Amino acid sequence: MTVGAVAGRLRRAFDRLCDGLNALGSLWIIALMALIAADVVGRTGFNAPVRGVTELLSLSIVGIVFVQLASTQREGRLTRADALLGRLRTSLPRLAALLDGVAHLAGAGLLFVLVWASLPYFTRAWERGEYVGALGDFTAPTWPIRLIIVVGSALAGTQFLLQALDGLRAALHSADRAEDA
What we know:
With 181 residues, this protein is mainly alpha-helical. It has one domain. The chain contains 5 helices and 2 strands. A two-stranded antiparallel sheet has the order 1-2. Strand 1 and strand 2 form a beta hairpin. Helix 1 runs antiparallel to helix 2, helix 2 runs parallel beside helix 5 and helix 3 runs antiparallel to helix 4. The longest helix is centred in the N-terminal third of the chain and has 44 residues. The radius of gyration is 21 Å and the shape is elongated. The two termini are 33 Å apart.
């Protein structure tokens, strides 16, 4: 098996992992909608709200963002301003690919800094048993969400890095085509 074949298999496995986490995030949203509906029915119909809905929602919103971040980036759905790149792609495709690669490299750097900065928060939450809520009413541990932030940032950083390599490869490949002409 060639290096390219192994790289292709790893890339497809990474893509499937990101897509699976994206699907998990979508299911998580559906579960939250059901929880909110149950809370509304409980509050209005029985004067008995579901305990912890506010806490679970605040944790879940952050978790959903990070569990879906890598897939969102891979699919090109992460917000970005690329009016300049759009114009450059038609007139100077090599420069556009190079700039796109550099932008993705910067995104990878930012996400890996986020991983590094988030690790202490995760370890502290794990070691101290941090939670949200009120004792005797409802509590939820914070470490799972902190772990999701670390893992989601690492996956999104890896996705940015892969796209940076694709952009830089495209810039070099278009240079090779220009020399052949």
